[in-house]
Amino acid sequence: MLVAADRPAAPAAIRTDLGAIFVSLELSKSTWLVTSLSPGSGERMSKHAVRGGDVAGLLARLSHLQDKAQARTGQRFAPIVIQEAGLDGFWVHRALEQEGIESHVVDAASIATSRRRRRAKTDKIDGEALVRALLAYKRGEPRVCAMVRVPSVQEEDRRRICRERKVLIGERTCHVNRIKGLLFAQGITDYNPLRRDRRRRLEELKTGDSRALPDRLKAQIRRELDRLELLLAQIKDLEAERDALLATEVADSPATTLLDLKGIGPDFATVLYAEGLFRHFDNRRQVAAYAGLAPTPWQSGSVRHEQGVSKAGNPRLRTTMVELAWLWLRHQPGSALAHWFQERVRRNGGRLRKSTVVALARKLLVALWKYVTAGVVIEGAVMKAA
User: Fold this and answer.
1) In contact, 246 and 256? CB cutoff 8 Å
2) Is there a contact between 66 and 21 (Cβ–Cβ < 8 Å)?
3) CA distance 37 to 72
4) What are phi and psi of 85, to 5 degrees?
5) CA 315, CA 228: separation in Å to the nearest integer?
6) Nearest to residue 58, comparing CAs of 68, 48, 67, 46?
7) Would you give the distance in Å from CA 335 to the centre of its chain?
């Protein structure tokens, strides 16, 4: 006769004695998937759907989870919620915090996933992965994920000016290129739509074979000029609003402090402050990583090489710093950073200028951070005349 031995109690794979209800949100336009792990329910995760945008329904679901956990354990536990940073922004996070609920926003790219070439991906799997990441984060495991520092409403609104201006500049470029392309097909290469006499010159244009512009083509270009002039007016209004915002800043604010350096104008100062330097950083590595300018080494055994910058940070700040690095070489040639760049390029035989300027952008960002936070003047930098 076979006798079944008692199986020893296996240790729980997921530690659920942290005294909270762990909840993840998978947000979409139509449905919010709520995945939860509650005390007293073992390792089983429950899943419920809430209509997209229904905050009251979400709060009711969280309250129901608290009631069920209290019925099982005799204690009432507070929920801790996690969601991915994405198209929904931070309004759900702010709504939860207004109700006194602990909420976290995580960078989805920082969560470990399977490295198989073809892996399953569903909202259910993602919801469970978020709960596990939240559990590990609350246990204090290092580098388990990267939580987003949610900006305040004022900090988020301050970015609108520089971001909208960049969008308008891109649209302006599209209209200018379209007009130039239409005229190039007629043999005209010297027309600049950004000049103030653009309409008068349009009437005087002749094609490459000495004909007047066709009527329909000229009408199309006029409509393009109408849209271009509207964009130019909007850009001018935005720049006036930007200058007014800088004028209201106190004398020692980061934005106005940056303006004292030669080569940094209102646009660069606004972008640097609104996109990065308004934040608190503990060290220079955090500054470089936030801009996506941190190096990405590859080391396995005896194989060691660099893969370039990570590009995992703020793309607007990163592109602005690369542009500023080129301008820094022009306007601050006597600075220590410019000398470092020239020496590095000289040692490489005049090659690798582009990759070296990215390294210069990283060094310059760290130097500007020290300048606006601790008042450390960049060595050899020239200040604007008062």
Assistant:
1) yes
2) yes
3) 13
4) -75, 130
5) 27
6) 48
7) 30
Q: What is the pLDDT of residues 138-167, one digit of tens each?
A: 998 888 998 999 999 998 998 999 999 999
C-alpha to C-alpha distance for 362 and 296, rounded to whole angstroms: 13
- 79 vs 332: CA distance, rounded Å: 53
What's the first-to-final CA gap in the chain, in angstroms? Answer: 99
Beta strands 78-84 and 46-51, pairing class: unpaired
**DSSP letters of 274-287?**
IIIITS--SSHHHH
Scan for tokens 């996070």, then name that residue: 93
C-alpha dist (Å) from residue 196 to 191, 202, 217, 235: 12, 11, 20, 15
Task: Give dist(CA 386, CA 379) in Å, integer.
Answer: 20
Is the pLDDT assigned to residue 304 strictly greater than 90? no
- DSSP string across 129-160: HHHHHHHHHHHT-TTS--B--PPPHHHHHHTH
Give the other-Cβ count within 10 Å of 228's Cβ.
21
Spatial separation of the C-alpha atoms in residues 384 and 256, rounded to whole Å = 12
346: Cα within 13 Å, side-chain hemisphere? 6
Rounded distance between C-alpha atoms, residue 368 and residue 287, angstroms: 10
| Segment 239-268, tens digit of pLDDT | 999 988 888 876 667 788 899 899 999 999
341 pairs with which residues across the strands?
none
